[in-house]
């Protein structure tokens, strides 16, 4: 059996077939051979995978939950009286939303470079403490300009969050394992959307305590919580399998081998070489990365729209401010369930395209159309459920799809940072399209969201066919050069995406 055929066999194997006979035969290291034999068992493999999940995913989940809570709580503070106390006009409030993205989008990719240099264990907890301090400071803002400056700083520190967590987890899991893990910590965003309303409703009861307004308490309490959790997560984050104290020696050997089956994927303690021009060129200037940015806009424009304005939208559906905080929670809880299910299926069937475009064009578009086509408040609220699920559930697959295309760790760090940073620019659009004069149907905002979804879906469709064509070319090349098939695929890892054994994930 050719090496290419064996590789394809692995890509479609069940867990119990994760180690093939040919792969066992070529292992020269007796310790590695023993580790492979131990973990070729389905139950042993799953126990190890669960062990890694329990030590890698929770810290990302906690921190991303808090990051999304802290960037979106300004929407809760608004309906709790922040605009009136600070004398903000509707335009100034929109500017306060927008300036966050000026730094957030700009520093995503550079933040991943710093993460690669300092290591996740130092960088991720450090930036959590910093943005928590900024949020706490927002509770003491007394005017528009102070709020503006703090939002700029918040965008700077939070720029290291989602791209950093995505890159961190991409170095611990193979391509077909990644989306469900990204979905787990990204689902924290949906929970944050739900919890923020409930938490804001509870915190608002402190209004006037120690002479501090209820909206200010929202920032103070949530900022202090982030600082505390950030300090704790230092003990929960592990740079690489080699340095992970929770893994035994044979587990480390096997997991490194497991990651290398993606043809060179996986960061190591020794893999701290600098970012060379080929890394930068492939990660920042490759047109494929920017195509995935457009796909990302199809998700982020509606996602941030609802993050900022769902409490306000629900207020215009007839509920008073305190009740609107609570009623914004159910759509997010539903979106969390759909996000988990969508990403689980994506990993199970090892497909990305269908689980990006599917939710966007069904839940997303249908939800917005329903809420635009009626004035019935209950039906419009139902449309919010569909639209929220349609915009949140594709995002983990969108990020994983891009990350899966780059086996080199440095290139992947830049590509993920570029995609998430520039896709987040959709939040700038979101800051202006839900205008008060358009209430309660918000036809302009929902129409723009539908347009972004259609654009993202069209680009995703093009990428699906393009990447399939590239895989077919590689397969044909290997068939025409049988002498290459007898060589170790690891010899070609330095070629990155040009590696003939590396296939783009579809």
TrEMBL record:
<dbReference type="InterPro" id="IPR020846">
    <property type="entry name" value="MFS_dom"/>
</dbReference>
<feature type="transmembrane region" description="Helical">
    <location>
        <begin position="122"/>
        <end position="142"/>
    </location>
</feature>
<feature type="transmembrane region" description="Helical">
    <location>
        <begin position="215"/>
        <end position="237"/>
    </location>
</feature>
<feature type="transmembrane region" description="Helical">
    <location>
        <begin position="329"/>
        <end position="346"/>
    </location>
</feature>
<protein>
    <recommendedName>
        <fullName>Major facilitator superfamily (MFS) profile domain-containing protein</fullName>
    </recommendedName>
</protein>
<dbReference type="InterPro" id="IPR011701">
    <property type="entry name" value="MFS"/>
</dbReference>
<feature type="transmembrane region" description="Helical">
    <location>
        <begin position="182"/>
        <end position="203"/>
    </location>
</feature>
<dbReference type="Pfam" id="PF07690">
    <property type="entry name" value="MFS_1"/>
</dbReference>
<feature type="region of interest" description="Disordered">
    <location>
        <begin position="478"/>
        <end position="499"/>
    </location>
</feature>
<feature type="transmembrane region" description="Helical">
    <location>
        <begin position="48"/>
        <end position="66"/>
    </location>
</feature>
<feature type="transmembrane region" description="Helical">
    <location>
        <begin position="443"/>
        <end position="467"/>
    </location>
</feature>
<feature type="domain" description="Major facilitator superfamily (MFS) profile">
    <location>
        <begin position="56"/>
        <end position="469"/>
    </location>
</feature>
<keyword id="KW-0472">Membrane</keyword>
<dbReference type="InterPro" id="IPR036259">
    <property type="entry name" value="MFS_trans_sf"/>
</dbReference>
<feature type="transmembrane region" description="Helical">
    <location>
        <begin position="148"/>
        <end position="170"/>
    </location>
</feature>
<feature type="transmembrane region" description="Helical">
    <location>
        <begin position="353"/>
        <end position="373"/>
    </location>
</feature>
<dbReference type="GO" id="GO:0016020">
    <property type="term" value="C:membrane"/>
</dbReference>
<feature type="transmembrane region" description="Helical">
    <location>
        <begin position="93"/>
        <end position="115"/>
    </location>
</feature>
<keyword id="KW-0812">Transmembrane</keyword>
<keyword id="KW-0813">Transport</keyword>
<dbReference type="GO" id="GO:0022857">
    <property type="term" value="F:transmembrane transporter activity"/>
</dbReference>
<feature type="compositionally biased region" description="Basic and acidic residues">
    <location>
        <begin position="478"/>
        <end position="491"/>
    </location>
</feature>
<keyword id="KW-1133">Transmembrane helix</keyword>
<feature type="transmembrane region" description="Helical">
    <location>
        <begin position="289"/>
        <end position="309"/>
    </location>
</feature>
């Amino acid at each position: 059996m050719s090496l290419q055929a064996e590789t394809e066999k692995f890509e479609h194997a069940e867990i119990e077939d994760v180690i093939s006979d040919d792969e066992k035969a070529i292992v020269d290291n007796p310790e590695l051979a023993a580790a492979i034999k131990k973990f070729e068992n389905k139950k042993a493999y799953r126990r190890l995978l669960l062990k890694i999940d329990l030590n890698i995913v929770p810290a990302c989940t906690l921190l991303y939950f808090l990051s999304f809570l802290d960037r979106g709580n300004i929407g809760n503070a608004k309906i709790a009286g922040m605009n009136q106390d600070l004398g903000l006009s509707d335009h100034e409030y929109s500017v306060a939303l927008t300036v966050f993205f000026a730094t957030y989008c700009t520093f995503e990719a550079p933040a991943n470079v710093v993460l690669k240099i300092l290591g996740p264990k130092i960088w991720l907890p450090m930036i959590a403490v910093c943005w928590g301090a900024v949020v706490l400071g927002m509770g003491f803002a007394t005017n528009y300009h102070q709020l503006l400056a703090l939002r700029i700083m918040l965008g700077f520190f939070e720029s290291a969050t989602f791209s950093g967590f995505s890159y961190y987890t991409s170095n611990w899991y193979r391509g077909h394992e990644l989306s469900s893990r990204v979905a787990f910590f990204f689902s924290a965003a949906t929970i944050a959307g739900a919890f923020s309303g409930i938490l804001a409703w509870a915190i608002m009861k402190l209004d006037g305590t120690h002479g501090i307004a209820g909206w200010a308490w929202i920032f103070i309490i949530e900022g202090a919580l982030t600082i505390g959790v950030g300090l704790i997560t230092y003990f929960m984050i592990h740079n690489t399998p080699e340095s992970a104290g929770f893994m035994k020696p044979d587990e480390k050997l096997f997991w490194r081998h497991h990651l290398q089956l993606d043809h060179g994927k996986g960061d190591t303690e020794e893999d701290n070489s600098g970012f060379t021009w080929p890394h930068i060129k492939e990660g920042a200037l490759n047109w494929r990365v920017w195509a995935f940015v457009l796909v990302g806009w199809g998700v982020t424009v509606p996602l941030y729209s609802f993050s900022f304005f769902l409490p306000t939208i629900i207020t215009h559906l007839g509920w008073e401010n305190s009740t609107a905080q609570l009623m914004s929670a159910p759509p997010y809880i539903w979106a969390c369930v759909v996000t988990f299910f969508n990403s689980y299926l994506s990993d199970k069937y090892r497909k990305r395209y269908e689980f990006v475009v599917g939710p966007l064009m069904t839940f997303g578009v249908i939800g917005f159309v329903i809420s635009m086509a009626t004035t019935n408040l209950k039906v419009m609220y139902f449309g919010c459920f569909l639209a929220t699920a349609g915009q949140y559930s594709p995002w983990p697959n969108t990020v994983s799809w891009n990350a899966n295309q780059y086996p080199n760790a440095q290139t992947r760090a830049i590509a993920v940072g570029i995609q998430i940073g520039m896709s987040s620019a959709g939040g700038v659009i979101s800051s202006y399209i839900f205008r008060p004069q358009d209430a309660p149907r918000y036809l302009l905002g929902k129409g723009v969201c539908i347009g972004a979804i259609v654009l993202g879906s069209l680009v995703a469709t093009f990428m699906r066919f393009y990447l399939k064509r590239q895989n077919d070319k590689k397969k044909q090349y290997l068939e025409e050069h049988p002498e290459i098939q007898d060589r170790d695929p690891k010899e070609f890892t330095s070629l990155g995406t040009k590696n003939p054994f590396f296939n783009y994930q579809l």
